[in-house]
Write a structure and sequence with these properties.
By secondary structure, this protein is an alpha/beta fold. The chain is built from eleven helices and 13 strands. It has a seven-stranded mixed sheet. It has a two-stranded antiparallel ribbon with strand order 2-3. The chain has a two-stranded antiparallel sheet with strand order 7-13. Strand 2 and strand 3 form a beta hairpin. Helix 9 packs parallel to helix 11 and helix 10 packs antiparallel against helix 11. The longest helix is centred in the C-terminal third of the chain and has 18 residues. It is globular. It starts with a strand and ends with a helix. Belongs to the glucose-1-phosphate thymidylyltransferase family. Keywords: Magnesium, Metal-binding, Nucleotidyltransferase, Transferase. Catalyzes the formation of dTDP-glucose, from dTTP and glucose 1-phosphate, as well as its pyrophosphorolysis.
């Protein structure tokens, strides 16, 4: 399975913070925002990842992450010069996907919860069409909503419904089989001139091949796309890390525990950042797990 992080857009909801920098480079407590979606793909066992961003943002993202080799990954980059919808990421990434299943995640989405790696890998192994991830929200009229029947089967998808029939918000994480690119190619642009990811999901639903996995109690999903949600995400990560003495979305730790890198690589990376708590955490982790 190939991975795509869509880290494009202007980040206008976060102005003036994002007038001179990519939204995905903003700090969510102790690490750049892009670390969080990357960590999800890594936990799903995905190592070939394409990051799509604006022409201005690709160079600093490349400076941050390089080719991914220090994490045991293969990271490449592509440009989206204008925001033309989430589904365009499937077309931009068509060569990267190369006829294989894919996982697409939005660059400002943060997921955290016990057992998440197990859930992601199960979803990957059982993939038949597309798998969406739902999360209960108190204001479903603001989201794309997935309605399920009594058996838990997905029966409808509505974008920002006036009268929601469910509280299952469809998050910014999508698993697709090899048909996703062709489905995206067949879409008609919306009135805004965008290729809507909801239309991709609806086509899978029409074919009877769309599934919704509900992330319930014990999970957290945050969209760090506004000032308030960015602050809330930082505070959430701060509380977890300080109370549990662990790091959320620590890419080096995930890479080490999954065998993508060895303890020596983790230690070297930590030494490069030894003046920060994050760097010292990596050095200690390497000594503990080495």
């Amino acid at each position: 399975m190939k991975g795509i992080v869509l880290a494009g857009g202007t980040g206008s909801r976060l102005y003036p913070l994002t007038k001179a920098t990519s939204k995905q480079l903003l700090a969510v407590y102790d690490k750049p925002m892009v670390y969080y979606p990357l960590s999800v793909l890594m936990l799903a066992g995905i190592r070939e990842i394409l990051i799509i961003s604006t022409p201005e943002s690709v160079p600093p993202l490349r400076a941050l992450l390089g080719d991914g080799s220090e994490l045991g990954l293969d990271i490449s980059y592509a440009e989206q010069d204008q925001p033309r919808g989430i589904a365009e990421a499937l077309l931009i990434g068509a060569d990267h996907i190369d006829g294989q299943p894919s996982a697409l995640i939005l660059g400002d989405n943060i997921f955290h919860g016990a057992g998440f790696p197990r859930i992601l890998r199960a979803a990957r192994e059982r993939l038949d069409g597309c798998t969406l991830f739902g999360y209960p929200v108190s204001d479903p009229e603001r989201y794309g909503i997935g309605e399920t029947d009594a058996r838990g089967a997905l029966v409808s998808i509505e974008e920002k419904p006036l009268r929601p029939r469910s509280d299952n918000a469809i998050t910014g994480l999508y698993f697709y089989d090899s048909d996703a690119v062709e489905i995206a190619r067949g879409l008609e642009p919306s009135a805004r001139g965008e290729l809507e990811i909801t239309d991709v999901n609806k086509e899978y639903l029409k074919q009877g091949r769309a599934n919704l996995f509900r992330l319930g109690r014990g999970f957290t999903w945050l969209d760090a796309g506004t000032h308030d949600s960015l602050l809330a995400a930082s505070q959430y990560v701060q509380v977890i890390e300080q109370r549990q003495s662990v790091r959320v979305a620590c890419l080096e730790e995930i890479a080490l525990r999954m065998g993508y890198i060895d303890a020596e690589q983790c230690r070297r990376t930590g030494e490069e950042m030894k003046n920060s708590e994050y760097g010292r955490y990596l050095v200690q982790l390497a000594e503990t797990l080495g």
